[in-house]
Write a structure and sequence with these properties.
Order of helices and strands: HHHHHHHHHEHHEH
Structural class: mainly alpha
CATH class: Mainly Alpha
Number of helices: 12
Helix content: 55-70%
Strand order of the largest sheet: 1-2
Number of domains: 1
Number of strands: 2
CATH topology: Endonuclease III, domain 1
Radius of gyration: 17 Å
Oligomer: single chain
């Protein structure tokens, strides 16, 4: 892991552990168009509120097992008994509101798919289906939210999503490559900027 760590820390210093470096080097900022992955990242970013991202990464496999590998049709059918069971599951964040929001968000994903063909098509329509390429010089230049994340947050809330405040939405946009927020000195900045438009 020594070589990836040098590459990550040289550009995006938030990636400092084995888990965060692997996530940074292979996933963060790459445009995603897979509905299950988008649902997963909405869930994980919402779960992260008040916690460290490292904590969420450590629980990621637990989330995949607990929420049917983020199949929205399955999760949408979860009952209050399922929520009660998951509140006791140490493999995820045992916050009832966040667990309930995942079930509700699964229903919102299904509604978006019915209305727009896919969650992907709807979310990416806010950017005209084209990633925003930033030229951040330093990690200090990264905002917590933007006008676009506020717009997306408002639209998602109106569509029935929960735990999708503007800051969470911006983190989600960074994660799924809607915005390229690797600093320009980071090797991943170029790699993500060359990802083809859908």
């Amino acid at each position: 892991m020594s070589e990836p760590k040098q590459a990550a820390s040289a550009g995006c210093p938030w990636a400092t552990t084995e888990l965060s470096i692997a996530y940074h080097d292979h996933e963060w900022g790459l445009p995603s168009h897979d509905d299950r992955h988008l649902f997963e990242m909405i869930t994980l970013e919402g779960a992260q509120a008040g916690l460290s991202w490292e904590t969420i990464l450590r629980k990621r496999e637990g989330y995949r097992e607990a929420f049917a590998n983020f199949d929205p049709a399955t999760v949408a059918r979860f009952t209050s008994a399922d929520v009660d069971r998951l509140v006791l599951n140490p493999a995820i964040v045992r916050h009832r509101g966040k667990i309930e929001s995942t079930v509700q968000n699964a229903k919102a994903v299904l509604a978006a798919q019915a209305a727009h063909g896919s969650l992907d098509s709807w979310l990416w329509s806010f950017l005209d289906h084209t990633p925003i390429q930033h030229q951040r010089q330093s990690i200090k230049d990264l905002p917590a939210e933007t006008d676009l994340s506020k717009t997306l947050s408002k639209a998602m809330k109106e569509a029935g999503f929960r735990f999708v405040g503007s800051t969470t939405c911006y983190a989600f946009m960074q994660a799924v490559g809607m915005v390229n927020d690797h600093v320009v000195s980071c090797p991943r900045h170029k790699a993500c900027s060359m990802s083809p438009k859908k």
